[in-house]
Amino acid sequence: MASGQLSREEALECSSSRHACHVMLYSDTASLLFGRTPIRHIVLMQMRFDGLLGFPGGLVDPLEETLEEGLTRELLEELGVAVPVSVEDYVESCFAPSHPPTSSSSSSPLILHFYVKKIEEEQIREIEKAAASTAVDHGLEVLGMVRVPLYSTKSHAGFSCFLSHSFIGNARSQLVDSLLRLHLVSPGELRRALRSSQRMNA
Ligand code: GTP
Ligand code: MN
Ligand code: MN
Ligand code: MN
Ligand code: MN
Ligand code: MN
User: Fold this and answer.
1) What are phi and psi of 68, to 5 degrees?
2) 46 lines ligand 1 (CB under 6 A)
3) Is the CB of 158 inside a 6 Å radius of any atom of ligand 1?
């Protein structure tokens, strides 16, 4: 395990910590951009109230709900659909990066739990519809769902441009690590995209 990481069991023993769960929902797709560029996979993220990109999910109280029940509750609030997420979809837990150790009162450590779940393209469309209409957090905590472009355009935009935006916590590495692990992008494509996203931010 990488530094800062802990197992689900270790994490749940940290009773004085706060816990948050987020999930990467994705599907396959046969759609072509401009009738020629395969989109291949739809990966859902969201534009948060703070202008940062992140995954749907949120704070969970392990005394009142399991991690997965809490995550499903947050999905109902943020997506308008109670997508059931189970222990089988669990990926990893870690301490929130750059938690300011000096700040007082509210600063019990935050443990971040991450899940990945593959669904059907049709479900993605239903989620997008509900997230923009019936979701109670629409326009409040969540400004909109976004799909991640995994392809590179002729002008070398697309995935690299997406990666050059600002992300909450370690959502960017959760995205990148998951895409690699699930073979949704190749290591070569990722390397090229990371390099050109760095140039965009330079
Ligand atoms: P409230 O309903 O207002 O309590 O928000 P929430 O429960 O939806 O919490 P939120 O989704 O903001 O997540 C809680 C904390 O987890 C955030 O303040 C971030 O520090 C962190 N966080 C949020 N999204 C992500 C994400 O996609 N990945 C990671 N690693 N951390 C995240
Ligand atoms: Mn057009
Ligand atoms: Mn949230
Ligand atoms: Mn929320
Ligand atoms: Mn919440
Ligand atoms: Mn809330």
Assistant:
1) -75, -35
2) no
3) no
Query: What are the two backbone dihedrals, phi and then psi, of residue 21, each rounded to the nearest 5 degrees?
Result: -120, 135
Tens-place pLDDT, residues 78-105: 999 999 999 999 999 999 986 555 555 5
Residues 6+ apart with CB under 8 A from 111: 6, 11, 14, 17, 18, 19, 20, 93, 94, 95, 96
- Residue-range domains of the chain with CATH: 5-150 (3.90.79.10)
DSSP state of 87: G
Encoded tokens for 100: 């300011």
How far apart are alpha carbons 71 and 59 in whole angstroms?
A: 8
CB of 169 sitting under 6 A from ligand 1:
yes
Q: What does the pLDDT look like over 142-159, one tens digit per residue?
A: 999 999 999 999 888 999
Better-predicted residue by pLDDT, 1 or 171 = 171
